[in-house]
Amino acid sequence: MNMALIDRELLAKQLEAGVKYLQLELLPGQQDQLLDYLELLVKWNKAYNLTAIRNPSEMVSKHLLDSLTLTPYITGQRIIDVGTGPGLPGIPMAIMYPDRAFTLLDSNSKKTRFLTQCKLDLDLQNIEIIHSRVDEFHPDKPFDLVLSRAFSAIENMVNWCAHLPGDNGVFLAMKGIFPSQELEALPDGYEVKKTEKLMLPDCEAERHLLIIGTLSD
């Protein structure tokens, strides 16, 4: 892919430094796929307004690296990213874990058309694109993980997505400032299993990950 929409060499260095900061490792080809995805996002964003962030360098930090902070917490084989938007964090996670199956769901048809193009251009055979409201989507099999990034309030996420995880499935909710008030409205039968403060290079904004599951027996 050679669209000359970004300074690929400069952004590659930024991505490499960020990955090192996160103490992650990329396999051969994964960096290229992530940058190919970024190029597609820059190109389509001009017409489709997929994200308010326009600067490619900001996209590396606030989209790619922000999504990659989830890497250590991905478990199981079947994973769904609800309200995925332009594929965040779903596409970066699918690139990082080519042996796992990712479903990317969004109700916005422009965004799912973009995701379909990403699947083709990046040859991501481990993703399925679903154009639907989450409460209207009923999968054939349950999921091990339900991901969300700035999708909705935690109460809504759990209520709308309660039919998606299996018996041992959990929700991974990416948030900014720790959502104390949202957690007070956590539906009965659920608990926060773990919270993590996520650190990003050159980013002072707070980032948190909440791992939510059903109450332990």
From TrEMBL:
Compartments, as annotated in UniProt: Cytoplasm
InterPro entries recorded: rRNA_ssu_MeTfrase_G, SAM-dependent_MTases_sf
Binding site for S-adenosyl-L-methionine: 83, 88, 149
GO cellular component: a single term: cytosol
One MF term in the entry's GO annotations: rRNA (guanine-N7-)-methyltransferase activity
Catalytic activity: guanosine(527) in 16S rRNA + S-adenosyl-L-methionine = N(7)-methylguanosine(527) in 16S rRNA + S-adenosyl-L-homocysteine
Enzyme class: transferase
EC number(s) reported in the record: 2.1.1.170
Annotated keywords: Cytoplasm, Methyltransferase, rRNA processing, S-adenosyl-L-methionine, Transferase
NCBIfam families cross-referenced by the UniProt entry: rsmG_gidB (TIGR00138)
Primary role: Specifically methylates the N7 position of guanine in position 527 of 16S rRNA.
Family to which the UniProt record says this protein belongs: Belongs to the methyltransferase superfamily. RNA methyltransferase RsmG family.
Name the record gives this protein: Ribosomal RNA small subunit methyltransferase G
Organism listed in the record: Oleiphilus messinensis
